[in-house]
Design brief:
The protein contains eight helices and no strands. Helix 1 runs antiparallel to helix 8 and helix 2 runs parallel beside helix 8. 82% of the residues lie in helices and 0% in strands. By secondary structure, it is mainly alpha-helical.
């Protein structure tokens, strides 16, 4: 992610979303811009995953981020809604313990779901637990290392948040967002290796 192709995407998304938070506009406009920028970041992250999986170790161009990102984001939101709805139904009809276990399994299998989604761009295939299980068992121990690496990066965002603080609201929000966006690209690049 530290190259001249990825940095503009990472920094642009971070700065513009921080600006939108600092200067509240009409909420629907702000929401649409947030969705478009988040979609662009995820589109770029998925392009990184696809290129790495294909054996290309050069970063995709920044222009790849700005086409089709919103539809990709809507599919990812749909995946979240379906997973959340399934967990809610499990909690209501089976019990909270089962829902907790299923939720933990979903969080563990989330990288496999995203890898499967990158391969097929099909929401149903991505959420198929058999596809996730097949992918996890095929990858083996490196999948566990991926989960550990994601947990370390998630924890480090909290530590960095404490170090940066909130003294300069816009600056701290921008820096935290840049770091989170950087980690997102790193995680998707690593998932491409899987």
């Amino acid at each position: 992610p530290l190259n001249w192709e990825a940095l503009p995407v990472i920094i642009t998304v971070a700065v513009v979303t921080s600006l939108l938070s600092a200067f509240p506009l009409v909420w629907i406009f702000t929401l649409l811009v947030y969705l478009a920028l988040t979609g662009a970041l995820f589109k770029y992250a998925f392009r990184c995953l696809e290129r790495t999986a294909a054996g290309e170790m050069s970063a995709p161009s920044a222009g790849d981020a700005y086409t089709g990102g919103l539809s990709l984001l809507l599919k990812l939101i749909l995946i979240s809604i379906i997973a959340g709805g399934s967990l809610t139904l499990a909690a209501v009809f089976i019990g909270p313990t089962v829902a907790g276990i299923l939720g933990t399994l979903f969080v563990i299998s989330l990288p496999a779901v995203l890898i499967q989604f990158a391969q097929t761009e099909n929401v149903i295939d991505a959420l198929n637990p058999l596809n996730a299980l097949r992918l996890i068992t095929t990858i083996g121990l490196p999948y566990g290392l991926l989960i550990a690496f994601i947990m370390i990066m998630t924890g480090s965002v909290s530590v960095i948040n404490e170090l940066i603080g909130d003294r300069f609201s816009f600056l701290s929000m921008s820096l935290q967002s840049i770091i989170s966006n950087y980690y997102t690209i790193v995680v998707f690049h690593i998932m491409g290796y899987m």
